[in-house]
């Protein structure tokens, strides 16, 4: 069964850090680009970052560039999102997603909630 | 405000047809493929259409996609109450080197 499962969310103070993980199963993880997408409460989808199948290429949304880092460990079938200097506006459900093509995501995790609050 | 523009809401009666538009520019929709997602309340998005008009396995042919110039359209025929959801378009923006999503459209089946 093709599956993505996020973990690592929680409540964190502004300026602090958090690392999200996304465990993949049921497909050849090392063959696909992977993305993080977030959704603030009551708001629409916002793309966060992408990493190529081998980790050699990474792109970020302007809103997180310089603060967030996407990475992957193909030996562990796991995707990561290191989030530093967190702000209140980073509060959202964070989804990891497998790409079918560069801009089409066919498999999504259930999401993990990140709340940035003092 | 999203770079890709969608109507905030659309509505139609059961059994009818509805279309949802997504407007962009030459750096995104005009030169890249468009995908569409359905998000039911409290769930993760689900891919409905990719590469402008292709349906993943398991998506019924009631859902269709098209693209013309810098705009794309999602069509849903034979509306069912279970189709009530938020719908998002998405594409790559070559100038921004980023994936863009539309602001989302809430479909109400009256």
From TrEMBL, chain B:
Cited CDD domains: IgV_L_lambda
InterPro entries attached to this UniProt entry: Ig-like_dom (IPR007110), Ig-like_dom_sf (IPR036179), Ig-like_fold (IPR013783), Ig_sub (IPR003599), Ig_V-set (IPR013106), IgV_Light_Chain (IPR050150)
Per UniProt, residues of the Ig-like domain are: 1-89
The UniProt entry's GO CC annotations, sorted and at most eight, read: extracellular region; immunoglobulin complex; plasma membrane
> Which key words tag this protein in UniProt?
Adaptive immunity, Cell membrane, Disulfide bond, Immunity, Immunoglobulin, Immunoglobulin domain, Membrane, Secreted
Q: How does it assemble?
A: Immunoglobulins are composed of two identical heavy chains and two identical light chains; disulfide-linked.
What protein name applies here? IGL c331_light_IGLV1-51_IGLJ2
């Amino acid at each position: 069964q093709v599956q993505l499962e996020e973990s690592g969310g929680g409540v964190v103070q502004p300026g602090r850090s958090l690392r999200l993980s996304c465990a993949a199963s049921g497909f050849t993880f090392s063959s696909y680009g992977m993305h993080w997408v977030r959704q603030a409460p009551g708001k629409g989808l916002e793309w966060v970052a992408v990493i190529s199948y081998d980790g050699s290429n990474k792109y970020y949304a302007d809103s997180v560039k310089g603060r967030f880092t996407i990475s992957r460990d193909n030996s562990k079938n796991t995707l990561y999102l290191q989030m530093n200097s967190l702000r209140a506006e980073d509060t959202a459900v964070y989804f990891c997603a497998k790409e079918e093509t560069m801009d089409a995501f066919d498999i999504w995790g259930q999401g993990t909630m990140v709340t940035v609050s003092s | 405000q999203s770079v890709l523009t969608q109507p905030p809401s659309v509505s139609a009666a059961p059994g009818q047809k509805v279309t949802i538009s997504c407007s962009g520019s030459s750096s995104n929709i005009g030169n890249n493929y468009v995908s569409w997602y359905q998000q039911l309340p409290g769930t993760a998005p689900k891919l409905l259409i990719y590469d402008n008009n292709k349906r993943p396995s398991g998506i019924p042919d009631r859902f269709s996609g098209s693209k013309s110039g810098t705009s794309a359209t999602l069509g849903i025929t034979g509306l069912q109450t279970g189709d009530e959801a938020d719908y998002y378009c998405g594409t790559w923006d070559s100038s921004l080197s980023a994936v863009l999503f539309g602001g989302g459209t809430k479909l109400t089946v009256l």
